[in-house]
Protein: Putative non-specific serine/threonine protein kinase
Amino acid sequence: MAGGVDLICLVFMWSLWSAAYNGATNTLKPGESLNSSSLLVSANGKFTMNFRVYELDPNHSYLVIKWNASHNYAWVANRETPILYPFGVLTLDRNYTLKITHRDGDAVVLYSADSETISGDAVATLMDDGNFVLQEVSDDGSVKRDLWQSFDYPGDVLLPGMKLGVNRSNGHNWSLSCWLTEKSAVPGPFTLDWDPDGHELKIKRHGVVYWSSGVFRDGSFENIKQKSIVSKKNEDYFSYTTLDENAVSEWLLTTIGRLKDFDESIDIAKADSCYGYNTDGGCHIWDQPTKCGRSGDVFEQVNGYFNPTDASGSTVSSRSDSNTSLSISDCKDACWADCNCRGFIFLFPNQTGCHYWTGNLKFIADSAGYSSTVVYFLTTKSDGSCKYSHP
Ligand SMILES: *[C@@H]1O[C@H](CO)[C@@H](O)[C@H](O)[C@H]1NC(C)=O
Ligand SMILES: *[C@@H]1O[C@H](CO)[C@@H](O)[C@H](O)[C@H]1NC(C)=O
Ligand SMILES: *[C@@H]1O[C@H](CO)[C@@H](O)[C@H](O)[C@H]1NC(C)=O
Ligand SMILES: *[C@@H]1O[C@H](CO)[C@@H](O)[C@H](O)[C@H]1NC(C)=O
Ligand SMILES: *[C@@H]1O[C@H](CO)[C@@H](O)[C@H](O)[C@H]1NC(C)=O
Ligand SMILES: *[C@@H]1O[C@H](CO)[C@@H](O)[C@H](O)[C@H]1NC(C)=O
Ligand SMILES: *[C@@H]1O[C@H](CO)[C@@H](O)[C@H](O)[C@H]1NC(C)=O
Ligand SMILES: *[C@@H]1O[C@H](CO)[C@@H](O)[C@H](O)[C@H]1NC(C)=O
Structure:
């Protein structure tokens, strides 16, 4: 009897499950589209693709691929064109153009068959590894070739199986680029690249090398302590897989230049701690502003405010740069180069622009958080304790 109840229970569970997945397929066929109320789910259930409203920018949506175990977006189709919610539609049209149309402005074209002759049919599939692939298929459904794939256009996340480096036969360059700010997916200043000549990974800011992995030897990179991965590389490109294939892993390049593994719990590289005077953890050395004597200085991030140390303080001032292409590392860089700069905050709520403090100032920490402003201020690392004073 108990067995019968179990069976009924199972059938009931199964019908619930299929109701939940009803309409959730992993493919898009010519003439089909995906709008803000539908989604694709990979066959193994691990990856979804749909239009999502980003919590920090509630009026806009991005077409994203997301690993269900992570809160990051593994891939964003329209980084530079946030789309007014809920008007985005992804379509594979009958001419095999894969594009996102929306209410205002031009379509974001991901693939267009203009220059190619497609003899059979084409279908776009969200694969079990998180790759969204447009494939030419023959009448019997067998795959003839890949026409386009999301793995060729990485954003700020590297999933197992994705490549960094260069394809010598067509010149394609695979590279990660961080978000401009935590609130904007627009490509920011840091990139993660594979150097096919030096055979190492590099984090660059506006093209300047901040960090490198060192060469791969005895199963790991000199400056990467993480042991749970196997890197697969040939001369031209790098990719990795996890030792345990059920393990969850994704590498994320953050806005401040840090490379983290899965949901920010492990730091692989900290380019935000590279100031050009230190080589710890793989940091590179570069030219310093000569007169400042910044060696040993670091930026600290604390709630607080600046107080003039000299009441007559005629040199005390603050100034702003309203260029909205500037984000945290640009503010740091400019403050660093100005020998009078003591710290900065963002100018705009979306974390762009810079507001600097210069002159004879002392930073007063407000660790109780009465002042809601997070200030980035310069201090000396010397003995590990900070030089700001508490009121
Ligand atoms: C998405 O498409 C379905 C089916 O055509 C339609 O019923 C639904 O209203 C659409 N949703 C949005 C947000 O446009
Ligand atoms: C993700 O999907 C897999 C496969 O459907 C499932 O086993 C797992 O429990 C899901 N994880 C989360 C956090 O939802
Ligand atoms: C979202 O749009 C509404 C209506 O246009 C507007 O009032 C609101 O300020 C917008 N929110 C943001 C964060 O831009
Ligand atoms: C497909 O291409 C033909 C010829 O260029 C054009 O007339 C037609 O409108 C296109 N169809 C779609 C769905 O874009
Ligand atoms: C490199 O490009 C060629 C030509 O487009 C392609 O056939 C090949 O698969 C690509 N190689 C990799 C590793 O993606
Ligand atoms: C690929 O592009 C990145 C970012 O623009 C650049 O830093 C890197 O040097 C390029 N790699 C190659 C091999 O051309
Ligand atoms: C704004 O900043 C960006 C990035 O540093 C720079 O390329 C651009 O020239 C600046 N624009 C103006 C108007 O200064
Ligand atoms: C950030 O905010 C400024 C000021 O409101 C705006 O001009 C700029 O376009 C915004 N930048 C991004 C990337 O959202």
In short: The pocket of 2-acetamido-2-deoxy-beta-D-glucopyranose (ligand 6) is lined by residues 166, 173, 175, 191, 193, 196, 204 (CB under 6 Å). The chain has three domains: 19-149, 154-286, 288-389. Residues 139 and 292 are 70 Å apart (CA to CA).
